[in-house]
Specification:
The strands form three sheets. This protein has a three-stranded antiparallel sheet with strand order 1-5-2. It is built from three helices and seven strands. The chain has about 140 residues and is an alpha+beta fold.
Length: about 140
């Protein structure tokens, strides 16, 4: 599949609808929710944000699949998301390191391809979010307090 024909993104963290982050407002302006979805990966608690890394095992990140509303706006919208995720910044400017890649996304109506932001920094000694669902995890953390 040609990278320029993929106009979908998979989100698992602060860009999800349940998070109510300012970035979600942006997403909902340009992207339309397609379906709840999952992707093979492991999720870690980095403190201020969740970090996903790919895996070949049957462990999944839970999130949402979005499609761009106006295809001609996709490149611009993705640039804004890249900036939000700190992709285009030099390492001195942003200690957070993510990379955007295409990934197979699983939905109830079948599999598709979408962009995802994988964490490319160190996850050493960071807690694994076993459920793969950051919203559920944060809810559990709040109940412990």
């Amino acid at each position: 599949m040609n990278q320029t024909t993929v106009h979908q993104i998979f989100v698992y963290g602060s860009l999800r609808s349940g998070f109510n982050a300012p970035a979600f407002e942006y997403i909902s302006r340009y992207f339309q929710l397609v379906a709840p979805a999952k992707v093979r990966g492991l999720l870690y608690d980095m403190g201020e944000y969740p970090a996903a890394v790919p895996t070949h095992h049957d462990q999944f990140l839970l999130g949402e699949l979005y499609a761009i509303q106006q295809e001609e706006e996709f490149a611009w919208a993705l640039e804004q998301l890249d900036e939000y995720e700190g992709i285009n910044e030099s390492p001195e400017d942003s200690p957070v390191s993510f990379k955007r890649e295409l990934v197979e996304v699983i939905t109830e109506s079948g599999n598709t391809i979408a962009w995802i932001y994988w964490f490319s920094g160190s996850i050493t000694d960071k807690p694994l979010i076993a459920s793969g669902d950051v919203l559920e995890y944060l809810h559990q953390q709040q109940q412990k307090r």
